[in-house]
Amino acid sequence: MKGTLVTSHARSMVRLRASSSTSCPGRRCACSSSWCVQKAQRAALYRALDERLNALPGVRAASLSWLGLFSSSYVGLNLYDVDRPENRRFTLVDYITPRYFDAVGMRLKRGRGFTDTDREGSLRVAVANEAFVRERLGGAEAIGRRFVMTYGDDLRPFTIVGIVADAKYYD
Fold it and tell me: Is residue 149 within a helix (H) or strand (E), and if so which, with residue range?
C-alpha cells in the first residue's frame, strides 16, 4: 500500500469498544459517542488504537484525528494569548495523535510535532500552521507562545512547539 492514504472514523471503532466497557448500573446502556467513556479511559483507548494502527505491517504512519481530514465538520474555539486575554478570536482547531503530519504528508516547517509523551498530565502543546502565525501573530515568532482555548472550565495554556506548512483542510 505504498503511498496510500486510508481514512476511517476511528471514533466509531472507539465507540464500539466504549459501549462494551461502559457500565450503567441497573439498566442496559447504548453508547452513541466515545464521550460517554471517562476522559482517562478515552485517552487510553485512543492511544491503544493509535499504537495498533501504527504496528500494522506496511503502515509507515497512522494517526487519529478528532474531525477527520475530509470531513465537513470543524471545531472552533475562542483562543487568546496568555499575555493578552482581551484579544479573543475564533480559531479552528483539531485534536490529533503524534504521527498525523507524517500520515497526511504535511511538512513541519520549524520546531517539533507531537510526540508520544504529549499526553494528559504533561505540558499542553500545540502546533500552529503558517496562516495562524501570519494572521494572528503578524509573522512574529510563534514557538514558545502560550495560548488559552476557551473550552469548558479548563483554562490551562497550550504552548506552541511547532509550525506546520499551510494546507487546505476545511473550505
Answer: strand 146-149
Residue among 119, 135, 132, 138 at smallest CA distance from 160? 132
Q: Does residue 28 carry a pLDDT above 70?
A: no
Round to whole Å and give the CA distance between 77 and 83: 18
pLDDT of residue 21: 43
**Mean pLDDT along residues 61-73:** 74
Percent of the chain with pLDDT over 90: 20
Question: Would you call 123 helix, strand, or coil by DSSP?
Answer: coil
Residues across the chain: 171
Amino acid sitting at position 76: G
Neighbour-count burial of 37, counting CB atoms closer than 10 A to its CB (0-12 exposed, 13-18 middle, 19+ buried): buried
d(CA 160, CA 112): 9
Grid coordinates given for 111:
520546531
**What digits encode the pLDDT tens for the residues 79-98?**
888 888 888 888 888 888 88
CA distances 85 to 32, 64, 131, Å, are 36, 31, 21
